[in-house]
């Protein structure tokens, strides 16, 4: 991403991450952008540009998480053993019925 540890990626790199970045790399870039903004050594225009970049990264992370959740839901729906296990545990009246 960037050669200097702790410094944010370039706005050009961020733009690429927003389009096609993997979750871990995008989240890491978002954390660096937040740190960069928190240092407060930016002009107002620079702050707005970095804030906008951070929003793009956040949206990408949210999109990737949503896609992962949908994939997991689809896998669970296709697995009858897992569906049966969920049905059994959800039909119990109490999570601790044996304790009484």
Please, could you describe this protein's structure?
- With 100 residues, the protein is mainly α.
- The chain is 73% helix and 0% strand.
- It has one domain (1-79): Orthogonal Bundle (Helix Hairpins), CATH 1.10.287.
- The protein has helices at 11-20, 23-39, 44-77, 80-91.
- Helix 1 (11-20) runs parallel beside helix 3 (44-77) and helix 2 runs antiparallel to helix 3 (44-77).
CATH architecture: Orthogonal Bundle
**Uncertain spans:** none
C-alpha Rg (nearest Å) = 21 Å
Number of helices: 4
In CATH terms, what is the fold-level topology? Answer: Helix Hairpins
Q: How many structural domains can be distinguished in the coordinates?
A: 1
- On the 0 to 100 scale, the average pLDDT is 84
Order of helices and strands: HHHH
Could you estimate the helical fraction of the residues in percent? over 70%
Number of beta strands:
0
Short synopsis of the structure:
The protein is mostly helical and 100 residues long. The chain has helices at 11-20, 23-39, 44-77, 80-91.
